[in-house]
Amino acid sequence: MAAKKAAAKKPAAKKTARKPNAAFMKPMTPSAALAKIVGDKAQPRTEVVKKIWAYVKKNELQDKKEKRNINADENLKAVFGGKKTVTMFEMTALVNKHLS
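Structure (tokenized):
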């Protein structure tokens, strides 16, 4: 009979905690048009984007066929520069213009 060798277990490598990017976490003040959607309190960009997505989903503004597109209502048109439809990638750039 051949003796089976037990595989030597290596200790798990320690993962370093990921540090959040300070630029994304800096509270920013939304413009009046954006404040109608996310509120007028200063908040990080990440929170602003989360709130916009919550608004889009709540009001069913995501395009049914092309999920990457957002069909703007009156409040979002003001933020999106008058565009009726924007992609989720365009949205971030357009929203950044409304943060200071």
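Residues 24-96 form a domain with the MDM2 fold (CATH 1.10.245.10). Residues 38 and 51 are 6 Å apart (CA to CA).
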